[in-house]
Every structure is written in structure tokens, then in C-alpha cells.
Design goal:
This protein has 297 residues and is of the alpha/beta class. The chain is built from eleven helices and twelve strands.
């Protein structure tokens, strides 16, 4: 039995789709934990066991992890909470439930940065790495998917790209860093959940095929969208002001800014790309297949 948390989010939705194709042949049953089962497609609900509720709720977790062999763990960011509350606090009931139900293997969504000089002051990433430590100390076999920023983050910029030909961030325009498609993260998670021959605790970087700077991204967008797109750099203080204005918890907003600042200082550059960590989807392909239909609609 494989349990999938957050199955309607970007990564969870892709993971569930992949497991629905491969899990039956492997003799695996699937169980999902979801607040609103109506958000699952009808065909999906017919093929999985659905546990309704939040995976922060110990009662829900007791039902979800009963008889589970492996768990996909993803914490949905909650901007109303502090980073510690949102990651380690959210995960603490699950750690107890892993032990109570003898869960053997856990695959979690994490971040790059462990071991870099800026990891201790990287805001949300620091909180994520602390969550990994909490899970690792539980005694389960654990694989933390160490991810950079996602291609899908640019979908939040679709209106600005369409209307102004601009996307905005706070990092240096020439700062190259890895980026990854969520489908590639899901593919790595699916492989780990189905083949549970691994033991112990480790991180698994998922780095995409190449490092790109904001200027590189603007060039690729221009080519694939057929219209000029440029990068506009925002000041860190202005980002914090904007986030607080949107209603984010002040400490959470600061953690977002600290994470962005750490990325601008090389947070994501601590792992060398190898054939194992290089995922296949290029930004050019993603831009043509996913971003262009949204921007040009």
C-alpha cells in the first residue's frame, strides 16, 4: 500500500497519474489523503482508496497509514503559519504515525541547499531541511527529494508576461541555477515508491537538464512565445512589503525573502549535476508545452 498526500497539488497530481499507470502491474494499492475528494477526477476516485481530511490531523493519519508500506509526504505551504509551524509542526503528527503503524519507507518533497554556507539562513528552505531531519530521526527509510525552483512557478507570472512582457524575481539577472519540471520530480518519487529496495536516509537531487539564469529564461520565453519577454529584478525589501500586503504572516514573508536571498547567494549550487540527478524535461520543452498555451490563450 502506497499513501499519497497532497494528491491534487502540482507534484501529487502528476505522481498519482504516474502511479495509476504503473502500480497495478506491480501489485500495489494506492491510498490518497485529500481534504476535498471532489477535486479528484471521477476516474481516479474509482481506482484509489480515499481518506478525507488534512494530513496534519493525527486521526486522519491513523486511518491513512494503517497497513501502509510507503508514504509520499508533501507539506502544503501555509502562509498563515510561521515556517517552523508550517513544516516541522505540520509533520510532527506524521512522524508519530510512521512509528505507530510501522511505515517502512517515506519519500518527501524537500529542497536543495543542505551543506551550503547559506543553508542556516535560507528561510523556508531552512525550515524544510529541519523537517527532513525530523523525519530522518523517526527510524523510517527516507529519501528527501532535493529540488530547486520549479518551472511551474512561472505560471504565476503568466498575466504579467502576457500583458507587459515581463517576469519578476529578486535574483541577479545572470545568476545561473538549476530549475526543474514538477513532472520530473513526480517520476523520481514514483520510482522510489515502487522499488523500495533502498534503506537508510539520503537526499535525491532532481536538478533538471541545465542551469539557467533569468536572462536565459527571458531569451527562451521570447523564442517560444514569439514575443519579447524581459526580466525585471525587484528589491528584496520590496518583495517583503508586497508579501505582507498580500496578507502573509510576517515571519513567513521574511522566510520567503530569506530563501530568495540565499538562492541569489548560491543556495542551489551545492550539488553537481550527474546523469542520475539530471531530469529530462528542458525549459524550452516546458515553455512550449505548458507556458505558451496559458500566455497566448
Amino acid at each position: 500500500m502506497i499513501v499519497i498526500t497532497a494528491p491534487t497539488g502540482n507534484i501529487g497530481c502528476s505522481l498519482l497519474a504516474q502511479l495509476l499507470k504503473s502500480a497495478p502491474a506491480a501489485g500495489e494499492k494506492l491510498r490518497v489523503v485529500v481534504r476535498d475528494p471532489a477535486r479528484l477526477p471521477d476516474a481516479t476516485r474509482e481506482r484509489v482508496e480515499v481518506i478525507t481530511g488534512s494530513h496534519a490531523d493525527p486521526v486522519v493519519l491513523d486511518r491513512a497509514f494503517d497497513g501502509a508500506d510507503a508514504v509520499f509526504w508533501l507539506v502544503p505551504p501555509d502562509s498563515a503559519l510561521t515556517p517552523h509551524e508550517g513544516y516541522s509542526g505540520f509533520t510532527a503528527p506524521a512522524v508519530r504515525a510512521f512509528a505507530n503503524h510501522h511505515v517502512g519507507h517515506v519519500v518527501g518533497v524537500s529542497a536543495l541547499g543542505r551543506g551550503t554556507p547559506v543553508a542556516e539562513r535560507a528561510g523556508l528552505v531552512t525550515a524544510t531541511l529541519a523537517m527532513d531531519d525530523l523525519i530522518a530521526d523517526s527510524g523510517v527509510a527516507y529519501r528527501a527529494l532535493a529540488n530547486p525552483s520549479f518551472f511551474e512557478n512561472f505560471l504565476e507570472e503568466a498575466d504579467s508576461i502576457r500583458e507587459r512582457g515581463v517576469f519578476i524575481d529578486v535574483v541577479d539577472a545572470d545568476r545561473k541555477a538549476p530549475l526543474v519540471a514538477v513532472a520530473d520530480i513526480a517520476a523520481v518519487a514514483a520510482d522510489l515508491l515502487l522499488d523500495r529496495s533502498w534503506t537508510g536516509v539520503d537526499s535525491v537531487p532532481v536538478l533538471g537538464p541545465e542551469d539557467l539564469s533569468p536572462n536565459d529564461i527571458a531569451r527562451i520565453m521570447t523564442e517560444k512565445l514569439g514575443r519579447p519577454v524581459r526580466y525585471e529584478r525587484q528589491a528584496f525589501d520590496d518583495l517583503h512589503t508586497d508579501l505582507v500586503g498580500y496578507g502573509l504572516n510576517a515571519e513567513f514573508a521574511r522566510a520567503v525573502v530569506d530563501m530568495k536571498r540565499a538562492k541569489d547567494q548560491g543556495l542551489d549550487a551545492g550539488v553537481a549535476r550527474t546523469p542520475d540527478s539530471s531530469s529530462p524535461t528542458s525549459f524550452e520543452q516546458w515553455c512550449a508545452d505548458t507556458l505558451a498555451p496559458v500566455v497566448l490563450s
